[in-house]
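new request in #modeling-help
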Amino acid sequence: QLQLEESGPGLVKPSETLSLTCAVSGGSITTSDYHWGWIRQPPGKGLEWIGDIYYSGSTYYNLSFKSRVTISVDTSKNQFSLRVISVTAADTAVYYCARHRRGLSWDQFDYWGQGTLVAVSS
Amino acid sequence: SSELTQDPALSVALGQTVTITCQGDSLRTYYATWYQQKPRQAPMSVLYGEHNRPSGIPDRFSGSNSGNSASLTITGAQSEDEADYYCQSRDSSGNYLIFGGGTRLTVL
């Protein structure tokens, strides 16, 4: 059974960098059929896609983050990571990592981590 | 367009049928995927592609697509179906993923 687990600091100061890692177990991150994504959810609000990475390193980012976001992959450790620079209180959210299946005209996040709350506060 | 619109809240009597809708221009080209999220849990997909239910999802969940709209129908709603439901698709360029604002479903 595939499992994903987010890890990283739960508190980040404003203007600093948020860094999270998603460890994948029970399957290989290099499987060609899948992308790997990050989604966040501010408290009491809806879901927001942050971006995706393929094991080769190809990335897609939500343009609303305006180059603040970097997603990287480490195939040797079977994990991928998220980095958000210059954070503000608006970046306070539960951050999820998920496996992304991409069809010709559909997408599905079929496995999710449990989510990790990151608060931005001084 | 880069938006998917959902009604914020709906209610349904136990055992009755409810339809949750999602509207957006990109739905003319791309299918919606539907996620169910219960409090303090990660979302879970309940429908994807044209009419695909992931393993373990009851067949009371079904979907339809028409023009710029996608619908998730729960036939014979159960108390365990009370949750937030989100639609997700791509933007019109096809490169970026977008979520609807979510619909909170209450089962009365």
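bot summary: Residues 22 and 53 of chain B are 18 Å apart (CA to CA).
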